[in-house]
Amino acid sequence: MGRKHSSFPYTERDVSWMYFNRRILQEAGRPEVPLLERLSFLGIYSNNLDEFFRVRVASLNRVIEWGDKETGKGGSHSGNASVVREAQLARKTVKEISKLNASYSKEYEETVEAVYRELEKNNICLITDKDADPEQLKFIRRYFHEKLEGHIVPIWFSAVKYLDYETDEDIYLAVKAGRMAVRRSDGKERVVYDYAYFDLPVRTCGRFIRLPDRDGKSYIMYLDDVVRCSLSEIFEGMDYISAEAYAFKFTRDAEMDIDEDKHNGLLQKISKGLKNRKKGEPLRFVYDSSMPADLLRRVLDKLDLDRNDTVLRGGRYQNHKDLMKFPDCGRSDLKFRPFVPIIPSAIDGNESLLDKIRAQDRFLHVPYHSFAPFIRLLHEAAVDRRVKSIKITLYRLAKDSRVVNALVGAARNGKKVTVVIELLARFDEESNMKWAQKMQDAGVKVIFGVEGLKVHSKVVQIEMKSGPDICCISTGNFHEGNAATYTDCILMTASRRISRDVEALFEFIGKPYMPVRFNELLVSPNEMKRKFISLINDEIKNHRKGLPAYIKVKINHVTHPDIVSKLYEAALSGVPVDLLVRGNCSIVTADLPEGTPMRVSGIIDRYLEHSRIFVFAAGGRDKVFIGSADWMPRNLDNRIEVVTPVYDPTVKQEMIRIVDYGLKDARQARVVDGYGSLEFASPSEPLPTGSQEALYRYYASSEGQTFPDGL
């Protein structure tokens, strides 16, 4: 879906996201991907789609509603014209999303069925309640009484006005149960139906139940079907002669309204906002297409959907995000051969990591490298008497965060510890509140972000009593779980010019409206966008002078109109522009004149591509930057983000290598053309493997380690 944004082609952010998610679906359908990993990609696709509707489609619907109010009764345009235009665009975008979603849903169901057939060929059999034999039914009956009984409480549709208590995190079964009743006029019996629903206890029992193996085969049943087998027990004593159950799920608006009452503290406001989110309006409903019309009508009546909401006919099972936790049945041969994280020798050993960083800049590229050295650095700082203070920004935290443990230990050791924690990190607000309270109790100074600006930067400053301070700047969260599945780079440096700017950054966060000048760091919302545009302009000037000029960027999202326009200008001027964009991309390369030196591709592989690396030729000097910011309005205009220059020649070359490997990927990289292409990239010098495997092989061989056979 290309459109003109002023004078250049531009794909709407949310439409481009649909294209991105379809690339994940494509990966689930590739026979060369290990079978159980294909199931995981199906789960990722489904989970992504749920969050997309909860957040992005919800926001678009709010814009539409706002525009409708401005338009006024009778369709008059007496209201704010810009709001009305935005609403019209949002309505068009939602229409396109609905069209794509309907098409992709069919493709998704076909892919699920194909993967299930392959599972059966590999002796992993998914059976339904109708397939179970007497021996399996006996096991299921015992399972119900031992595990399920008491966790399922049917609610009569006639007893509730709306489904406003229920959350969109659960899967529901709607039940139609028939009983015999006497017709009063003639005394004859007839079947009368009652209608109920209940949520499946997935968090207690899991979504997939393993039945006993038999004859070398593994048997698995959806919890949905285990419950269907148990309907007579659930409605025991109610004399029903029939009962049938059909799955449905819905998605609520996840936008969190924050109470503006000045008498409430921020923690209380966030807590209240979380409660309000759980009661957000339903905006997407997916149901088993075989659900009887009378039962479907009762579900829809209780959801109170409006004309802007999405209603989709689906398959027998909903909430396929649970496929990410599908039992592996001991079949490691059907999964990716693991890449064991490497600890670089440059930061391994018994010597002080603080001293090693002071001697030379170091870096980690997780998950190829282990996250352990970063934890080790924090633990060393917590106990080393030379360390005066630690400052850190935290956006998301692991469930059992060793990062927090180190910070608490440092505070208990008498060091001054300051933590900037973002309470508005979407879907992590509740977790972050708990961690904030724990750190406060230990004496850590906790700053709850900046009003009106999310703190999305990932920065650490370790202040030493003498000599240069240590700084870490990351492209991703300081989160042990993410570090195992997201590709991110962490720069560890003792550069005085960078540490001075990092110190100024924490002062800026403490007093966000105080004028601050950053000499080395690119910081938003201050001057980051202006500096990026200046760097692109420099490449255009250098190209005209005959000097080396190119732009190579690895990033998550590119949607800021000013950046998109400037990249077009550079490419049309003859500057080679090569972009690795994982997710949202508003650039429409398909609409550019033939021969324009602009390539955009996106990599889908075992790890989530998450690092942001920016490389500019700079007339042959190569300027390299890494950091937390994507090229989106929210990152450049409405958040506190940090991007740092990379000065150390060794680290600089490693960052360039990461980008170059991605640009040479012909196995996992797809063309991003602005129209949803599924073509694979065709670089002039392709790698023999995917870029992720190539990087792991490179890091392993650099450390003199062997890599697993058969990769």
Topology:
Blueprint: E1 2-5, E2 8-11, H1 13-28, H2 35-71, H3 81-121, E3 124-126, H4 134-148, E4 155-156, E5 172-182, E6 189-199, H5 202-205, E7 208-214, E8 217-222, H6 223-229, H7 231-234, E9 242-252, H8 266-278, E10 282-288, H9 293-303, E11 310-314, H10 353-359, E12 362-366, H11 372-383, E13 387-394, H12 402-412, E14 416-421, H13 429-441, E15 445-447, E16 454-455, E17 459-464, E18 470-474, E19 486-493, H14 496-510, E20 522-524, H15 528-544, E21 551-555, H16 561-572, E22 577-581, E23 598-603, E24 608-609, E25 613-616, E26 623-627, H17 633-637, E27 639-645, H18 649-663, E28 669-671, H19 691-702
Parallel strand pairs: 3-8, 10-11, 13-14, 14-15, 16-27, 19-24, 21-22, 22-23
Antiparallel strand pairs: 1-2, 4-6, 5-6, 5-9, 7-8, 9-10, 12-19, 13-17, 17-18, 18-19, 20-27, 21-25, 23-28, 25-26, 26-27
